Amino acid sequence: MDNESIKLLLINKLNLTKIYVTGDNNHINIIAIGDIFKNISSVKRQQIVYEPLINIITEKYIHAVSITAYTNDEWEKTNNQ
């Protein structure tokens, strides 16, 4: 499964403002941005993003995933420093 397919899957399943997917089948890096993450712990945020990917991971299309999730405000502050 390619990065664009993963991106489209997550956009369709989650209410995200932006998403960045990089890497290859061995290791995918995901940065997810959206207000879906407001008032949610970092662990729960990762679980939210991970959930739509479970079948892809268990069928070994992806080996490892790194997820960073931001609210829109957090992303704006992170990128304006």
Automatic annotation (TrEMBL):
SUPFAM superfamilies: BolA-like. InterPro entries: BolA (IPR002634), BolA-like_sf (IPR036065), BolA/IbaG_stress_morph_reg (IPR050961). Pfam families: BolA. Belongs to the BolA/IbaG family. PANTHER family: ACID STRESS PROTEIN IBAG, BOLA TRANSCRIPTION REGULATOR. This is BolA/IbaG family iron-sulfur metabolism protein.
